Amino acid sequence: MKELMALKRPNAVAFNKKNEIHPFDASSNSQASLEFWSNKNGASLFVIGQSTKKRPNGLTFVRMFDNRVLDMIEVGVDKFVSMAEFKTPKSTPGNKPLLHFASDLFETHPRFSQLKSMLISLFNGETIESICLPGIEHVISISLGPTPQNLTTASTDLPSSTPEDLTSLPEVHIRCYTTKLKASGTRTPNVELIPMGPFLDLSLRRHQPPDAELLKQALKRPKLKKQDVEKGLGKKRKNMEVDKMGDLRGRVHVGKQDLSKLQTRKMKGLKARFDEEDAQEEEEDIEPQGKRQRIS
């Protein structure tokens, strides 16, 4: 988990306290705890590490939307090679990686399609319109092991409730490399990949598909792009802007209000007649002071 966090710095927060979280256990309050932490920390994705006798060396990816659990994937770490074992240069923290998925199953098989979407949400970072070639410092390659013949004809129409043999699914290999540009004699340089780490071999385990209605809200896109809406406005208007969803928003300035005429709730203890009675009682208590006698 520390290695994955190193790839996400500075956009990652580590929870130092060991919390008892079982996301797939319906009887526990784990999902409620995840929703609370999502709201508190503004987190859209959690990576939970667990190891039990039945499921050793497990990682669970939990994706959130609107502070609610959208979907979950559990994988087992069969092999791990740390960054420290590669005495090579590392990428700059916060740099956007290039993701490479090397299998058709990431498009056709529902389990691997969900894993691809989850890994993109984990590593993709901020959406940008363009990138300079020297700005690509590292590549994350995700490939699959030997694929059985029956999986090559898998379809996305396979229902999620259909029982499946997880042992027949190929392993997932995650490899991280740094890039080195070399002269090629042409405008496009040759790219050399240098192992950076970490290297992970994963096997698919349990999963929870997204709720259809919640997924529909998560995939909602603006009808028009922000640039197209701004172009349609013509001359820039004061106090008007377009948000990321393409909606036009305006700001209204209200004039200064006279708060002295503001109608407030009248309390019995603050009425004027009580103030007058108190003033009369104070006058009665005051005795008239006469002239002081001079004592010789």
Description of the molecule:
The structure is a single chain. 22% of the residues lie in helices and 25% in strands. It is of the alpha+beta class. It starts with a helix and ends in an 11-residue tail after the last helix. The strands form 2 sheets. Strands 1, 2, 3, 4, 5, 6, 7 and 8 form an 8-stranded mixed sheet that branches. The protein has a two-stranded antiparallel sheet with strand order 9-10. It has a single domain (2-218), classed as Rossmann fold (3-Layer(aba) Sandwich). The model is unreliable at 154-162 (pLDDT under 50).
Question: Main traits of this protein?
Answer:
single chain; eight-stranded mixed β-sheet; two-stranded antiparallel ribbon; 7 helices
What is the percentage of strand-forming residues?
15-25%
Helix/strand/pairing category: alpha+beta
What characteristic shape results from the CA principal axes? extended
Q: What CATH architecture do you see?
A: 3-Layer(aba) Sandwich
| CATH topology type | Rossmann fold
Radius of gyration: 32 Å
Strand element count: 10
What is the mean pLDDT? 82
Number of helices: 7
What is the chain-wise order of helices and strands?
A: HHEEEEHHEEEEHHEEH
**Residue share in helices?**
10-25%
Low-pLDDT stretches: 154-162
Termini Cα gap: 97 Å
**Total domain count:** 1
Task: Please report the first level of CATH classification, the CATH class.
Answer: Alpha Beta
Largest sheet: 8 strands, mixed
